[in-house]
């Protein structure tokens, strides 16, 4: 228990700083958590879109007895398809492979129901996620059909539209909640800082009354806010990293899947912690610098 007024003030100041740091770290931890959810939801959305493949069937006008010429022709067409800017991955499926896949899908173990190699050779095209869009998919299909050697292109348009709309709807809601929570985070951190500055309103006004310039009064508070923001952000990032490491180890996924996006998220957390803390300190301090002495008792 403090024995002097000075000891009491120091104890109260430490308690106030600890409260602000804890508030900042908790809020930034939750902001980072929403950021991780948004990043991984986008990755999952891209993964789902990549499962929507387009089948491009080869033109079979060549003499089937000239297999060497047919294979060379198909290889040239396959190379052209892979070179398209909207193609992420292309897999060649021969007639033999098509027959095996058909038997597997139908649950047939023998060739009794149909002859071998009745299915045409094709290319299974996986599009880049940004092209799995109802507004773009028809153009992609037409471009594939225009490639020399492609006879037909099959795509389930309705399935593509349904998946695209549902995924976009989910991502929109997650983004909206993330923005809303970021606003709430700003308000909570701002309130914590305002309470801290409120407890020093008489010191601020006393310094002003004895002739101290506003910049001179502001600088110590800004430096302290910068330190508190950095400490709070650092603790929040550590807590976020610990929780994310535990989660990824439990489900067996890599801790870091996209270094660039994770670094950007950490930078945003750090920036939010510093900017909100410093800005709130400046506004709260400036308010008492502009107020009258009598207003300090009713603020």
Automatic annotation (TrEMBL):
InterPro entries linked to this entry: ABC3_permease_C, FtsX, FtsX_ECD
Gene Ontology BP, a term: cell division
Chief site of localization: membrane
Domain ABC3 transporter permease C-terminal: 176-292
Keyword vocabulary terms for this entry: Cell cycle, Cell division, Cell inner membrane, Cell membrane, Membrane, Transmembrane, Transmembrane helix
Residue ranges constituting the FtsX extracellular domain according to the UniProt record: 74-153
Function: Required for cell division and gliding motility.
Name of the molecule in the record: Cell division protein FtsX
Organism: Epilithonimonas pallida
Upper lineage: Bacteria, Pseudomonadati, Bacteroidota, Flavobacteriia, Flavobacteriales
